Request: fold
Amino acid sequence: MAMALRRLRSPTSSLRTPHRLYGTGTTHANTVRRSEQGGPWPGWQVVIGIETHAQLKSREKLFSQTWTPDLNSVPNSRVAPYDAAFPGTLPRLNSSCVNLAIRTAIALQSDIQQRSTFDRKHYFYSDLPAGYQITQRYNPIARGGRLFLPQSNLSVRIEQIQLEQDTGKTISEPRRRNLSIDLNRAGMGLIEIVSKPDMRSSEEAGEYVRTLQAVLRSVAASDGNMEQGSLRCDVNVSVNRQGQAPGTRCEIKNLNSIRFMVAAIGSEVHRQIDMLDSGGFVSHETRGFNEDTGETFPLRSKEEAPDYRYMPDPNLPPILLTADFIASVRNEMPALADEIRERLTLHGLTQQDTDVLMAVDSGNEVDFDGRLNHVAVTYFEEVSKGRNPKTVVNWIIHELLGQLALRKKPFRENPISVEQMSGLIDMVQSGMVTGSSGKLLLRQMLDHPSSEAPSRLAGRLGLLANWGDEFLERLCSQAITDMPEEADAVRRGAPNVINKLLGRVMRSSKGTADPQSIRRTLQKLLSMP
Ligand SMILES: Nc1ncnc2c1ncn2[C@@H]1O[C@H](COP(=O)(O)OP(=O)(O)OP(=O)(O)O)[C@@H](O)[C@H]1O
Ligand SMILES: [Mg+2]
Ligand SMILES: [Mg+2]
Reply:
């Protein structure tokens, strides 16, 4: 059902600041990590825990059969009566969202719960038409788990993974004192991944989000796009003097880039340390981050925290998962980032080449059918079939990616097919064209996309290396060896059969050798007059 864009008077000029219950956390250093060798705040320990909301890459919403919006959707064009909380409408769980949550849980080594339930979390805001959000605070779909951060050498523990609904969007126009509501996002499936407070620096927090992003993409659970809002983080920060108990946490809401998250943590740590140094105390509060000043600011204190009046959702039965079902999801999962990395290492690629290939176009969307987002990895693996992987990766990384970047094109718009790239590399390797002609051909193919074989293009552009007699002789002798009967026939006086041999040499030269020269060479080798 499409609804006209509703205009509501702004009930408040403050920033949208949803939810959150107060909870105390325990802190455990679980491994020796780099940041422990002394950090920017000597004498202080910084403790960070992150709540990540990831939009599930599902065609339909979590509880209605409406299609999820894309970036071009007209506001309020993807709204079912249920999403707008029309009386009498009921939720129906979308199994593909459950599937994607399970995939994420498997990738994070979480313990998938065979029974999980939905709660209503009440709060009142204009883009939440029902007055409550359906979530899984008490019996989440998965508990525990961990995410290993290679650079920090740290394994961050996961508290839980829960399914929940996204809210609509409020577009504020303070000058006109208007709030516009777009319900396209209302009811989309989210997973909230709650980490334990295991991080000790903004660098670790940054690596955590980057790594989580890669995991979500590699299991095709989410686009994980922070700029577009499909991945959003709330960061909890506390400080304590070394050796003392953890301090009071403040939660910084809705950070939508890793850069801002790192800045927000820095500013927040400074603020808390200043406060404690000057004899004050940190009060538990929810804060926002001002991107212009680079500072955090209070949104609401613990006392003002809403009472969410959690209650089990009476319209939704528990999710019951059999062990067989969980195993079947596991079996159909695409390769995890770690597995791809391992495979590429087996091809003999360096860590750096691997990183570059895996990062290509990572900002792009994952497919609904769960295909991997590692487009450049797939391309590399196709082209390197039967070829030297090192040569292929050099062509892809240094030439192809370099030239695409110059043209400001993402890899997805690469017009050179696997066959064309393979042909080009073969020509350079066999000496049919020189390395620099090969690069020229590549640029030509990028600027004038077509399905023309690179060998033809090279012929057309006069880029073929000078065909020495020796090389042509080699191809001709090979044809004679491969076609002994035809060769004999020519020798015994059937001159026209030479055309068959000629055809063979044309093919093996990929159409680039000159037919007259081939004929002459064949005649010489077959001792014809
Ligand atoms: N002392 C602490 N310092 C920093 N982070 C902490 C500390 N204690 C707990 N945390 C982190 O705070 C986060 C709490 O998230 P959780 O979703 O459980 O509760 P919440 O923020 O109260 O609820 P809501 O989901 O409604 O926001 C976790 O990521 C946890 O690791
Ligand atoms: Mg929170
Ligand atoms: Mg939370």
Summary: The pocket of adenosine-5'-triphosphate (ligand 1) is lined by residues 19-23, 25, 27, 47-51, 194-197, 236-238, 246, 249, 251 (CB under 6 Å).
